[in-house]
Amino acid sequence: MVAYALQFVGNPYVWGGTSLTEGCDCSGFTMQVYAHFGYSLPHYSGSQASCGVGVSYSEAEEGDLICYSGHVGIYIGNGQMVSALGEDYGIVISSVNTSRIVAVRRILGS
Predict the structure, then answer these.
(1) Helices (H) then strands (E): counts for the chain
(2) Residue 46 has what pLDDT?
(3) Cβ(32)–Cβ(18) under 8 Å?
(4) In whole angstroms, what is the distance from residue 28 CA to residue 83 CA?
(5) The pLDDT of residue 110
(6) Which CA distances in Å does 90 have to 28, 65, 77, 106?
(7) pLDDT, tens digit, for every residue of 31-74?
(8) CA-to-CA distance for 61 and 87, rounded, in angstroms?
(9) Do the beta carbons of residue 18 and residue 28 sit within 8 Å?
(10) Are 71 and 83 in contact (CB under 8 A)?
């Protein structure tokens, strides 16, 4: 899943968007990446924070959702995540801000 998600780094952010190539927002990004593997997620970061099974950040595995208030991304390991960050950034790799995490959700295998 991580390798699939990473191929879209550099593509644009579009609020409300769901296209991994033409533009998506953070929840559209996670929704479409998971859909590629047969998982259905809602197109809203707040709702995604309730999907799957909650785990602690110390237990986070590649592919888990990292949820902040108003933002969501996919954990890629080593303290990093991939997400559609905003219009100025597009889809990027960034460090997980552990002080802002509201949930870590495991969808795969849940």
Answers:
(1) 3, 8
(2) 96
(3) yes
(4) 10
(5) 57
(6) 12, 18, 20, 24
(7) 999 999 999 999 999 999 999 999 999 999 999 999 999 999 99
(8) 28
(9) yes
(10) yes
Query: What are 78's two structure tokens?
Result: 């080593």
Question: What is the distance between the alpha carbons of residues 7 and 10, in angstroms, rounded to a whole number?
Answer: 9
Q: What is Dmax (Cα atoms) for the chain?
A: 34
Q: Write down the H helix ranges in 10-69.
A: 26-36, 45-48
Strand 65-68, strand 53-55: pairing: unpaired
10, two tokens: 């550099």
Distance of alpha carbon 108 from alpha carbon 89, whole angstroms:
27
Distance CA 46, CA 93 (A): 21
- Asked whether residue 92 carries a pLDDT value surpassing 90, the answer given is yes
